[in-house]
């Protein structure tokens, strides 16, 4: 008897844990119900993926969507539109909003705001402060919580936990992996005079590799003493890589597309648009991060989508804010790197789906396997396109990659069996839902 599925994605090439090969996917109730040759089966909806490649839905575990408080730069709806146009199916959003996501009420408020307005699935990082340490073990288990985020170096906003005693207390309160922005605050303060008025190329001189190295070294020692798993965000230096590799039992690490693609040469042409914390550095650091992609020291990719308006970016350095858009360009930029032979498609999937599933204990996402959510990033590996500001859905409306030709483009975004983007068009009303976590609070309805 043929089965009737809600959706069959036919004739695509699947990239999953078995390798790369042809397979149809049958979806029932938003979950993957069958894999293989489904040519004798029917479905209410069929997607013909002939000539296309199907990746497990891409999970971007670091984005700043600015709501509440800075909606002129971005909001949860516009950020999520950028995500799905870029082939991203889930995002983990950062706590440096106004107010900060540092109490249960602020987290619940973000989930309320996201529901019915975000086109992709979502979780929210909970910010650690010196004042809320006692609440963190509970906070990391709240529905929709991605876990705890700690800024050890100050960046956009005023979240900061830099004293070792406070870091120790954060690490001792709770169990889930803590995500950390690692730049040594005292060194940033000491070196602030090295910023050259009007010259953003002095940004990596101020926030130098030693600032990142010293902080990551101190953080790892504290994490070892506490026996706590940590995740070091946006690795920007060659210096930190041996440290990370020596402590893989507790430490995981993220790389960003911009640290893999842009370099200090770009300050000349792009100016403050490349200004980011931690900074985009010279090619020696970039090449070391590529080596760490290949040797496994890096576990996941996050875009660190951090939009600011062009007007804000036009203020002369160092008055200009740090951050650039990225959620929508993650997939095309990385597919272009795949096509250029810098990483394999399997490794890309490991970094953007399997990696987040493994590190953050995501329930039912990150693999194309029976019972998992039917989240797919459908890509045309051969499409040759030009990334342009006009394509960017962010309220900031710009990308540092404007004018860049890439090979490889997201063709469609499927979330829990719903086609939410096809050929650069968003389809249907936003239906994003909270991501579920094995160590978090399990949703009593969907299990
Ligand atoms: O450059 C950055 N901008 N780095 C961060 O860590 C924060 C981000 C932002 O929120 O603007």
Please give a quick description of this structure.
The chain is α/β, with parallel strands linked by helices and 447 residues long.
Task: Give an overview in words.
The radius of gyration is 21 Å and the shape is globular. The chain is 27% helix and 24% strand. Helix 3 (136-139) links the parallel strand 10 (121-127) and strand 11. The strands form three sheets. The chain has an eight-stranded parallel β-sheet. A seven-stranded mixed β-sheet has the order 3-2-7-16-17-18-19, with helices on one face. With 447 residues, it is of the alpha/beta class. It folds into two domains: 4-54 and 370-392 and 399-426, Urease, subunit C, domain 1; 58-360, TIM Barrel. Bound molecules: (4S)-2,6-dioxohexahydropyrimidine-4-carboxylic acid (DOR).
> What is the CATH homology-level superfamily of the largest domain?
Metal-dependent hydrolases
Please compute the radius of gyration using only Cα atoms: 21 Å
Percent of residues in helices comes to 25-40%
Find the CATH topology of the largest domain: TIM Barrel
Number-wise, the strands total 19
Strand order of the largest sheet: 8-9-10-11-12-13-14-15
What structural class do you assign from the helix and strand content?
alpha/beta
| Average pLDDT number | 96
Number of structural units classed as domains: 2
Number of helices: 14
């Amino acid at each position: 008897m043929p089965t009737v599925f809600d959706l069959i994605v036919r004739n695509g090439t699947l990239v999953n844990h078995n390798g790369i090969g042809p397979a149809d996917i049958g979806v029932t109730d938003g979950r993957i119900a069958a894999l293989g040759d489904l040519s004798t089966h029917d479905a209410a909806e069929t997607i013909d993926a002939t000539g296309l490649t199907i990746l497990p839905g891409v999970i971007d575990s670091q984005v700043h969507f600015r709501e509440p408080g800075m909606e002129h730069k971005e909001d949860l709806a516009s950020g999520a539109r950028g995500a799905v146009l870029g082939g991203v199916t889930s995002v983990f959003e950062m706590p440096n909003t106004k107010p900060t996501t540092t109490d249960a009420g602020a987290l619940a408020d973000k989930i309320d705001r996201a529901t019915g307005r975000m086109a992709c699935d979502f979780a929210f990082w909970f910010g650690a402060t010196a004042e809320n340490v006692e609440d963190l073990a509970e906070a990391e288990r709240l529905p929709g919580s991605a876990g705890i985020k700690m800024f050890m170096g100050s960046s956009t906003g005023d979240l900061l936990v830099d004293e070792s005693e406070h870091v120790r207390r954060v690490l001792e309160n709770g169990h889930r992996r803590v995500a950390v922005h690692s730049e040594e605050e005292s060194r940033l303060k000491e070196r602030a005079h090295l910023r050259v008025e009007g010259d953003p190329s002095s940004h990596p001189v101020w926030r130098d590799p030693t600032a990142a190295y010293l902080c990551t070294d101190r953080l790892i020692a504290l994490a070892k003493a506490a026996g706590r798993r940590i995740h070091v965000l946006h690795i920007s230096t060659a210096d930190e890589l041996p440290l990370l590799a020596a402590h893989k039992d507790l430490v995981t690490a993220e790389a960003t597309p911009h640290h893999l693609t842009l370099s200090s040469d770009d300050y000349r042409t792009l100016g403050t648009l490349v200004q980011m914390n931690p900074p985009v550095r010279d090619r020696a650091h970039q090449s070391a991060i590529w080596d760490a992609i290949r040797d496994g020291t890096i576990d996941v990719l996050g875009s660190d989508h951090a939009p600011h308006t062009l007007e804000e970016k036009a203020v002369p350095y160092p008055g200009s804010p740090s951050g650039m858009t990225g959620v929508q360009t993650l997939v095309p930029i990385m597919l272009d790197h795949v096509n250029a032979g810098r990483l394999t498609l399997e490794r890309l999937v490991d970094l953007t789906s399997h990696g987040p599933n493994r590190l953050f204990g995501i329930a039912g996402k990150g693999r194309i396997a029976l019972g998992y959510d039917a989240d797919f990033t459908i890509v045309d590996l051969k499409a040759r396109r030009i990334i342009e500001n006009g394509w960017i859905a962010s309220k900031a409306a710009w990308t540092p990659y404007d004018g860049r030709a890439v090979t490889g483009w997201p063709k469609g975004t499927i979330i829990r069996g719903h086609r939410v983007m096809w050929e650069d068009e968003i389809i249907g009303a936003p239906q994003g839902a909270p991501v579920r976590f094995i160590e978090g609070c399990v949703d009593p309805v969907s299990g």
